[in-house]
């Protein structure tokens, strides 16, 4: 009997050892013997307790001048990973219900994830009612409100969901496109965010595309790949993102990367982190030197989500502050710009004295299950934290046997299905009423409402509001940021006039003037081409004695060479052999290719295949290779109404091709020659004289052509 017992124990040990070595996360470790380390027992040998929401709140320490409020918690919400608000101020929470339900990550693909709508019925700041909008999704990742519907991202798809009867439950859903497809294999590294920014695009982390909602359709365009989880932006249109080993990164691609002075982006000045408890339960903490003498870790490895305070409730001293989440160390870090934008590209890591640990982050907790995985600035201008609240946050794909053993022994894998939302409120917080309508909202003191109002007008295609928005854009007494939002709103509606742009360029506020220069092409219907007639305006801005350096530099650039290349999708053009045999044609072709990239590539794309819901293909198109005069006519005066390409109706594309008659004859002729001989097309070149002859013949025409007229 004694021998039998020993055999059973040995068999269990062997099975346990085999299980530990089977962890996917172990495969990256060259020194396999390190994985058996028990170093965590020195600082954290005990089982991790579960605290009530109120108890967990009491274990937080936040920066002086702020307090933390509990807004929502389980069972109202479970496993929250993001939060947003609708136009009525209701809180929407996305839940990742099947993430690591046990240490094997069982059942991850089950359709149990929800989007919950929370309501504060008595307006005391605490949610009172929860309604499941959807409750059968596969790990929801983000959402965005568009018109009377909601875009929701889950593993593998982006859905348009609609509540048809007003009960806050989804009655109709349509899959618009494949999205976050990588999440089925690697849930930590797949598309998410849908963050609406100043330039009217929705940006995503872990993605190489941006999205826009126009006239009831989704438009997709290539974009720079950014970040890992979450996305933020500020009042100047800078984008903010991060990944697990970096507190934050930011760039100003919206304004042609005119900041920082050197490089394309600015990264956090440090990866140091200062918690107020031992941080042993991190995946690679078995490596020598990872855990410090006091049990904490020196650097971040689990950064997840961020938010930026810009024109919010915290006042000018916190303008531009970046709040980044570090769930592995139970902390929220804060970084403040050294000087107001755009005077500096340096940030200061804000830490605070601690009686026990000497130094701590903006917010730190002694509750090991406090897992701030995401954050958002709310309509009230305050920071909201999304607490996943669980022990295990490492995905099975990367989990090491070291962390698995520690998690099992300390019961970090227990108590799932929890979650809390917190609000960080400044002392003497004063509420600001929501705007009465979207146009008024463009002037709201809080950025959240200005962006939401802009989003409502542009995505709702509110052409009826173009005139009052234009009045705001042209009002010299209006707040500069309100005028900037109005300019971008008009651009989104396709109603930005040349006169409005000229007035903006001449404005005394540097950001209004910069925005006028940035949107000059939009007033002509060509977003990526700086029209020649605006170059004298740019020269005047550059020559002004009071022009800030960032504005003078941009004006000088545009006056000399126009907008810098914005294309992110690379395309290797293959010059046909017959082109190379004709030097004159080849010269025009190459000149046209360069001009096309700047002026046309954003919509029709570098490969000429166009974009769904935005622009038709030019490759193998009879409009391009057919009658030359017709092609010149479309380029000079534009085209409107339905069309057919190669005999087939074009669907899903806006029925307007903007006029490009403001371009010079040689610019148009070279572009048209290029498109007639690229991507497998072959047709006679078009000369400057051909374009000039058309202009003379149709000098009285001012309206776009229709297909029927041809």
Quickly list its features.
globular; 32 strands; Cytochrome Bc1 Complex, Chain D, domain 2; single chain; alpha+beta; 3 domains; Neuraminidase; 6-stranded antiparallel β-sheet
Summarize the structure.
This protein is of the alpha+beta class.
- CATH class of the largest domain, named Mainly Beta
Distance between the termini: 98 Å
Q: Count up the domains.
A: 3
Count the E strands.
32
Our Rg estimate from Cα atoms comes to 28 Å
Low-confidence stretches: 8-21
Per CATH, the superfamily of the largest domain is TolB, C-terminal domain
The best one-word shape is globular
Task: Explain the layout of strands and helices.
Layout: H1 2-21, H2 53-58, E1 60-62, E2 66-73, E3 80-85, E4 91-95, E5 113-119, E6 129-137, E7 142-146, E8 149-154, E9 157-162, E10 172-177, E11 192-196, E12 202-205, E13 207-214, E14 217-226, E15 232-233, E16 239-243, E17 246-251, E18 265-267, E19 306-309, E20 321-326, E21 331-337, E22 347-350, E23 352-354, E24 358-360, E25 363-365, E26 372-377, E27 383-387, H3 401-409, E28 420-426, H4 438-441, H5 447-459, H6 466-473, H7 480-493, H8 498-505, H9 510-518, H10 535-543, H11 549-561, H12 577-580, H13 583-599, H14 601-604, H15 622-625, H16 628-637, E29 639-640, E30 644-645, E31 648-649, E32 656-657, H17 665-675, H18 688-697
Antiparallel strand pairs: 1-25, 2-28, 3-4, 4-5, 5-6, 7-8, 8-9, 9-10, 11-12, 13-14, 15-16, 16-17, 17-18, 19-20, 20-21, 21-22, 21-25, 23-24, 26-27, 27-28, 29-32, 30-31
Helix pairs in contact: 5-7, 6-7, 7-9, 8-9, 9-11, 10-11, 13-17, 16-18, 17-18
